[in-house]
Amino acid sequence: MPRAEISGEMEARYRAGLERALDSGAAVLERGGSSLDAVTAAVRALEDDPLFNAGRGAVLTRRGRAELDASIMNGRTLAAGAVAGIEHVRNPIELARRVMEKSRHVLLVGEGAEEFALEEGLVLVPNEYFRTPERERALQRALHGERTWELVAPPHGTVGAVALDEAGDLAAATSTGGTTRKRPGRVGDSPIIGAGTYAKNGVCAVSATGYGEYFIRTVAAYDVCAQMEYGRRSLADAVSTVLREKIGKLGGDGGIIAIGADGTIVMDFNTEAMFRAARDPRGQREIALCR
Fold first, then answer.
1. How buried is residue 17: exposed, middle or buried, by Cβ count under 10 Å (0-12/13-18/19+)?
2. How far, in Å, CA of 107 to CA of 61, rounded?
3. Other Cβ atoms within 10 Å of 283 Cβ, number
4. Which residues are tagged catalytic?
């Protein structure tokens, strides 16, 4: 979203939402909880906030329905779970975690994923639950070829979280509704392990946002990790290289949040803005929308 289109009221609302998600995850870590629980809590908070493009408030396909994707990864075991194209699970990140912990699979899609959700007793809702007036207006404008920046919610985006706990375990989680007016059945990078999400203990945890097709083609999240592990690059250098020298040169844009095994935090992007927040063990925090 261009900086000029972010009003003072809009900025205050987004900052409040980011702060709630940040505090949800930090509270888990402060009581000795795991990084997996922390990223789950943070992403769940963003899925429940209609301002963000995940869960309630997700953007709509050209048919006017929400199709949701999510993934999660455990840096200690390299276990991962993901779901794509689901239409009735209130919190997709919870289903992705169940796939990781309660199934033999990594990725479930569509009806099969929702059948598994029913077996696991997760909350299912009508697809209308995800729709908001802002997203419906954005879809109508997009269908008529108009820009949607001036609406309250951006026309695309992703929510994600990365964390390092006191045991040294890393975790990453990502959730999205995709892009406004997307073709039904389209799946971006968010549920693709190695593209939109990756975590490995001793190296880093990564969650990405942007035009997913570019992040898939560059295996962006894993590439950040590989550059650190095998190329001995710093986390900041690895993230910048992926965003600018790989994704950027292909014509894509977006952003990456990442945390290293030493607690280093990087939140970088090659767009005008990326809504982001971070908090360290001392309680110091950063909440920002633009550069």
1. buried
2. 21
3. 8
4. 158
CATH code assigned at 177: 3.60.20.30
The answer to pTM > 0.90 is: yes
Is the pLDDT confidence value at 147 over 70? no
The count of other CB atoms within 10 Å of the CB of residue 268 is 18
Q: Kindly provide the b/e burial profile for residues 152-164, where b requires at least 16 CB atoms within 10 angstroms of the residue's own CB.
A: bbbbbbbbbbbbb
pLDDT in the model for residue 151 = 46
**Assigned token pair, 167:** 């045991």
Q: What is the token pair recorded at 47?
A: 């899925």
The answer, yes or no, to whether residue 50 has pLDDT greater than 80, is: yes
CA distance 19 to 116: 32
Domain holding 183, by residue range, is 3-290
- The SS3 call for residue 271 is coil
**Measured distance CA(207)–CA(198) in Å, rounded:** 7
Q: Taking residues 184-188, report their average pLDDT.
A: 97
The pLDDT tens digits for 85-117 are 999 999 999 999 999 999 999 999 999 999 999
